Amino acid sequence: MTAETQATAAASGAGATARFRENKTIAAGTSTERVNALAGRLIKAVNDVVLEEKVSYDEYNAFKAWLIRVGEDGEWPLFLDVWVEHSVEEVANANRHGSKGTIEGPYYIPDAPVQQSPATLPMHEDEPGSQLLFQGEVKGIAGEPLGGAMIEIWHADDLGFYSQFAPGLPEWNLRGAITTDDQGKFQINTIQPAPYQIPTDGACGALIAAAGWHAWRPAHLHLKVSAPGYRLITTQLYFEGDEHVADDIASAVKPELVLVPTRRADGEGLEVTYDFILDPHHQDSEIAVDSSRGPN
Ligand code: MBD
Ligand code: FE
Question: What distances in angstroms separate CA 276 from CA 98, 116, 129, 137, 185, one per listed residue?
Fold first, then answer.
């Protein structure tokens, strides 16, 4: 595993930046009024810090140098997803009734090979880490089982590395897209992910060290769950007893998302059960219908 230990912040940052450029569409059509309001408030917030904290030229120049380095290291996706995305997610998912969502983070890759449940994620034959059977059901908010729902799952290996962002790992290692059976049930065999430390050798790591913070996220599974006619949910699941559940650097843990694995009844390792409850799509359009009833 020497290749993996040579993973650098700049390499995974460059990968995350390239991924973002390929797949995210910038919200074209944001109105002048909205840009004025948001950019204006952001600039004012920074100026307020300068004035209230009496920021010196040395501090201002250190800040400028650091911002330049964030770009050089490709760490804008990492920086934003660790320190800002949780609030965006809170706004985006405030009106859901089903399962809790949380942040996507910088390491999602679409179009993983599709498998039907029961499935085993692609991994090395001697993949380090305890075996984990992750199982449950996908349903709608009335409890209706969603057969053929899609569960995209991705997670770090036992050393905390994500395939396609650290060198030396098979392309789809510990990544998959699993469809539920006609009862909406799924069984996914994988390994227990390890707690994850965000790269310490890049600009974000330098900030963390300079501020006396820690770089840890609790061990987590990343998921996107979807079914036709239902709202896709992006979420993560965590494990009770992990010390970083209580102080995730990315502020992305919610109590509903912390699972308690048990010894596996019919084999080695651990098993854990979680049901995903999806909101129907039409809730968004209901809002549109309601407002169309008004005088304008
Ligand atoms: C991760 O694995 C992650 O999930 C987030 C949010 C940020 C950095 C690395
Ligand atoms: Fe992650």
Answer: 8, 17, 25, 6, 10
